[in-house]
Amino acid sequence: MKFTVFTPTFNRAKTIVKLYESLKKQNFKDFEWVIVDDGSKDDTALVVNNFIQDKILNIRYYKKINGGKHTAINKGLELAQGEYFFIVDSDDWLPEDSLEIANKWIETLDDDKIIAVGGIRAYSSKKYIGTTFIGKFLDCKSTERKKYGLTGDKAELWKTDFLNQYRFPEFNGENFLSECVVWNQISLDGYKVRWFNEIIYYCEYLEGGLTNTKGKFFTNYQGFIELVSVNQKCKEIAYCERLKELVICCVYAKKKKYDYVELAKKLNTNKIKIAFLAFCGNLVYKMLGGSVNE
Description:
Strand content: 15-25%
Shape: globular
Radius of gyration: 20 Å
């Protein structure tokens, strides 16, 4: 099987119907749809069961206790049978030629270091999300995107066997982890994505969605440490941005009475630097153009 279209969902019984309709219309048919329900309390199970009863698509549905999108992705990777893994959120949908376009670009790959292809996400056929480069395609690491003017959310299809080697870390009591923890680690290991300038994904960012990260880092601190730890090693990320993240991490450590020695070990630095940034954090962060309390 060529593709696993994977959808993590939480209380999106109404919007997932639009995605279902778009998958039925795909020109390229060699795919399965794996849905991991992250503890929904609405009618998601009933709605998906109706999809299954239609017998139009190859659908597998799994419901788990709420743990966050990253834990749903881990489960989806366990279940996936497709050669490529395409994460499509339950409030989004695909144009009819999405998988056909993706497959066309996959067939151009001739470098073992390129482990995914990535297309454009858009609000409409005329309104892209973020910015893109000039030309048909670009091979680069995820952490190099900004350098080439490739900003905003994109739509990546990853080699499933490869991505299975990069599971998202899970922490007890935390239900949010930035996906950049994995994407940036993949970049650190020298792997690239072939980005192309064609729309394969339509978005509708809804209130309460995962794109709203305000306040989530403080309540999911172990996951935030993991992100900062990876990003501190990514030299393609601007030093100012890495320093901002480090300052926030240290200030949170002080608020949470977190062990500075333990934090220094995880961030591969020393406890004196951690203590200094924790003490002077708000002042340092304002100098960098922000507020730790944002």
